[in-house]
Amino acid sequence: MNQKEVNELRRRFRPEKSAISKIYGCYVNNSREIVSYLDTPLGLLPEEEVEMYLGRLKKSLSGALGKNLIDVVFSTRQVMDSEEHRLLSTLRESQLQNGEAREAFYRKVIDSLDMGDQGYLILLAHDSYDVPRRGKDGENRREESEEVFSYIVCAICPVKEAAYALRYFHDANEFHGSSPGQVVTTTALGFLFPAFDNRAANIYNALYYAQKPGELHQELIDALFCTDAPLMSAAEQREAFHNVLQETLEGECGYEVLQTVHEQLRERIEGHREARDPEPLGLTPREMCDILESGGVPAERLEAFERSCEDHFGGSALLSPINLIDAKKFEIVTPEAKILVDPSCSYMVETRVIDGRKYFLIPADHDVEVNGVPVRAAASVSEKSTEAVVEAGDSADDPAEADSDTPPWE
To answer: 253 in helix, strand or coil?
Structure first.
């Protein structure tokens, strides 16, 4: 699915647009016991409650593709004959009215999902979307609809105890300490089945949601979808990418290389956002090699990098730049110091060897603050501007020696 298709479905989750007639689900306590079931017709609820239910289901389609929203691919064998795909298909085809299938689904979630000591609410809904035909001008032609997209959506929402607080009681006209009991929080996990690809149902795919990209809950993915290969979270992708760089580049993994990688990936992320491209941004290992080559990495290291990428991410994998770097931060860390640089200005940082020691140099020609206080850098004898010097190696053993290379801040 691309972003336009996700957004098109998200717009469905409004009382006036949704065809969802019932919300099914169950409340599971921290002992993995079902406390109560939901079988709630939305038509009998106040509008505020309807909006809360639909809002939590809609949350299952939020976040960034490839980061919060992850494509789950079923094999042909699974689609033809597998327990996991058969269960999801039964839920969809019965429009969730098959009680045995719902119960089997609940048990799959409860037996696999580890939420620690926290209870949670499972929400299930079915919707039939009369997909409007899109004209050449980009406008929808609902009267010319040719496709009905039937799908189920699931949201898993943690339940927590509300804080004890002073609350106003109208009858007594007084404030008293009380707690509203247990509160359903925002959606933590969820999925859509089948996927909405090319504005039509794709039973070979599902779209999985995780509020926290670093907490995919692989145990739930395994139980519901039985994927052949585990899905990598954004944090795991970044860690794997860093490991590939270190292992394959070895001595060639210098500051200039990493600065080039960060800058070019950042530019691609910004360009993709500005172009409003609905397709997720992805780079092949070969394209990553082109970036490394522009940073001065030799050919033999590039070959090793490409092979290692295929081993870690798969031969046909696309690397997602938003998962490989933090485009909003450029950070240099030593045992004694941390430097945060505006990513768009990372080119200003230089590396030099002075008197046999390695340094990072940052221009300090204009506004400089120390602990929030503006300071002025005194001009050296040879030039009127100075540079703040931050040591990249170990601190000097001799304090006098360390001070000799430090600009005389006034």
So the answer is: coil
**29, 119 Cβ separation under 8 angstroms:** yes
To 10 degrees, what angle do helices 255-275 and 234-249 make? 140
Name the pLDDT band for 127 (thresholds 50, 70, 90): very high
Q: Quick check: 81 and 248 in contact, CB under 8 A? A: no
Of the candidates 272, 378, 375, 364, the residue with the CA atom closest to the CA atom of residue 327: 272
CA distance 126 to 23: 8
**What is the length of the chain?**
410
**C-alpha separations of 273 from 268, 278, 279, 290 in Å:** 8, 9, 11, 22
Return the number of other C-beta atoms located less than 10 Å from residue 167's C-beta: 12
The residues near 107 (Cβ < 8 Å, ≥ 6 apart) are: none
Round to whole Å and give the CA distance between 264 and 18: 42
Encoding tokens for residue 58? 């809609």
Nearest to 116 by CA among 14, 22, 222, 188: 188
Q: Which tokens sit at 249?
A: 């580049």
What distance in Å separates the CA atoms of residue 82 and residue 74, rounded to the nearest whole number? Answer: 10
Residues 70-119: tens digit of each pLDDT = 999 999 999 999 999 999 999 999 999 999 999 999 999 999 999 988 99
What pTM did the predictor assign?
0.76
Measured between alpha carbons, how far apart are the two ends of the chain, in Å? Answer: 58
The confidence score (pLDDT) of residue 400 equals 42
Let me know: does 318 contact 71? Beta carbons within 8 Å.
no
At residue 339, the pLDDT reads 85
* 3-class DSSP assignment, residue 376: coil
Q: What angle do CA 67, 233, 96 make, to 5 degrees?
A: 75
Beta-carbon contacts of 68 under 8 Å, excluding residues fewer than 6 positions away, are 62, 209, 210, 211, 213
Whether the Cβ atoms of residue 27 and residue 121 lie closer than 8 Å to each other: yes
- Residue 387 CB contacts under 8 Å (≥ 6 apart), including other chains: 361, 362, 363, 364, 407
Residue pair 185/157 in contact (Cβ under 8 Å)? The answer is: yes
